[in-house]
Amino acid sequence: MNTTRHTFISHPTASCALLKRITTGCLFLLPFIAVGACSSASHHADGWYPVADIPENMIEGDVIATTDDFESVILDTLSFPGTAFIEGRLKPEKIKKWADATEERIGKRIGFVYHDSVVMAPTVNCRIESGTFSINSEDRNLIIEIYKSITK
Asked: Is the model's pTM score more than 0.90?
């Protein structure tokens, strides 16, 4: 049996997504109830953000790079059968911000956020001056969906 774990951000926008899922027949139980939060919540653009350990996967700062900042992405479905991952590179004018942000986050996490959900949040080990990144998940279909969203 293939199970997939999606991590939702404890944020009012995530509550809006939850309410939409409930109305379409999918139910995810979350430890909070949002009343009237949909109209006042801000949406996070898809991209890379600083992410906290506690509370788990909470966005804790401004966007580092959005998908609009991506110069190129490649979908790899062949290297590891049954999996998929995205390799990408930022636009030249965004590389310094990426390098500075990754240096600032050494020992901390940055996360790729898609539809207000943290897909992955690795710990940064060093400054990344190349402007490259990868996005992966155990959910192959989610990675393919993200790739299609980025390249449309």
From this structure: no
